[in-house]
Design goal:
The chain contains ten helices and twelve strands. The protein has 367 residues and is an alpha+beta fold.
Length: 367
């Protein structure tokens, strides 16, 4: 990406564009308890993350879901001897303060997955501000877009992931709409337990239950994946924020979301959306399906009482110079027929029954 900054950006911000900021070592090691919580938050039944025998067979031991990557650099909400609150993606909050833009949302997220993340890994990260736009006016208000990259390395120095966030910091130009100020009817306990609203019922045979996976010859260009219908409750939103260590109040505090963000309720966060996309794609591929990269754009929030529909099509099938088989997909997340998030994904799939994309590393893994 070409670094760029609008002409009217203060010099103290402009000089930071392209510079490494906040080199940080994670406060805790990757651990399976959080992996299980993350998988439970999106009902990801991939046996690669639940069955140690499958993990040993495919990866030489347990790994974390690739889309949980940002979990491992998010600091504790509180820690002894800390005099100031610690925030993930500090460069994002610096921009909000420096530009006097009190509200912000994430609009785009791109992740490239390199080496698997394993229990016991302690990841190191740094942030790079790539661009800050001129002032823009959107339906949320007037503000600026910015792009921040994050790189993740393990203790051995291996690159495990690269992530790019596009944020929009803004001031609201008008009061919240009527729908934002209304308190929505809450789902009662009976509704929250309705299997029709919490995803596939126990024993759903469309989910992977062992190490068997689709192979590249099984896939057809233009193929439509089976739809996934997933109900959302307040518990879904809060559990997703907890599972991704996102303590920002718009994901658990109704008053903050409505009064500060001008939306009708708490809403799903960005890392949890990424994990939902991963769950949807690997439900289809089976556990040998290995994400290489994912990019998604958020065009609307997902609230309690929404019912999400995931649909996807295979757009391209290819084999690279190393013999790795790839499937490119377009994915849409809709609510009541309205697109809330669109995603493009590139997934490695075995070219034969005895092939295993998880066994690739170094020059043989080019996502």
């Amino acid at each position: 990406m070409t670094d760029a900054v609008a002409d009217d950006i203060p010099a103290e911000i402009a000089t930071k564009v392209g510079e490494i900021q906040y080199p940080t070592t994670g406060e805790f090691p990757v651990e399976m308890g959080y992996v299980f919580t993350g998988c439970a938050s999106v009902e990801n039944g991939n046996p690669l993350f639940w069955d140690r025998a499958v993990a040993e067979e495919l990866c030489g031991g347990p790994i974390a879901p690739p889309t949980m990557i940002s979990v491992w650099f998010r600091p504790h909400h509180w820690a002894p001897n800390r005099t100031e609150g610690a925030l993930p993606l500090q460069a994002h909050f610096d921009l909000k303060a420096a530009l006097n833009l009190p509200e912000a949302v994430m609009t785009d997220n791109t992740i490239i997955f390199h080496a698997p993340v394993r229990p016991g890994d302690v990841l190191s990260t740094h942030q790079i501000l790539r661009s800050v736009s001129a002032a823009k006016t959107t339906k949320l208000g007037t503000g600026r877009f910015w792009v921040i990259d994050v790189e993740y390395h393990n203790a051995a120095g291996a690159l495990v992931a690269q992530e790019s966030y596009t944020g929009f910091g803004y001031r609201r130009d008008r009061p919240a709409d009527d729908t934002a100020s209304e308190t929505p009817a809450r789902l009662d306990a009976a509704t929250e337990l309705d299997p029709a609203l919490i995803g596939a019922p126990p024993g759903d045979t469309t989910r992977p239950t062992g190490s068997a996976s689709r192979t590249l010859p099984d896939v057809t260009e233009g193929e439509a994946l089976p739809s996934l219908i997933q109900g959302v409750s307040a518990s879904t939103v809060v559990l997703g924020a907890l599972a991704t260590r996102d303590w920002r109040p718009m994901h658990h505090d109704h008053a903050f979301a409505t009064l500060r963000n001008g939306v009708r309720d708490i809403f799903l966060n960005t890392p949890n959306l990424a994990h939902f996309f991963e769950r949807y794609l690997t439900d289809w591929s089976g556990p040998k399906g290995r994400l290489g990269r994912m990019k998604f754009r958020i065009s609307g929030s997902i609230f309690p009482q929404d019912t999400m529909a995931f649909d996807a099509n295979v757009t391209r099938i290819s084999t690279d110079a190393t013999g790795c088989g790839w499937v490119d997909l377009d994915v849409a997340l809709t609510v009541d027929g309205v697109t809330k998030c669109s995603c493009t994904a590139r997934m490695a799939m075995p070219v034969s029954e005895d092939d295993n994309p998880w066994g690739r590393a170094g020059e043989r893994w080019v996502p």
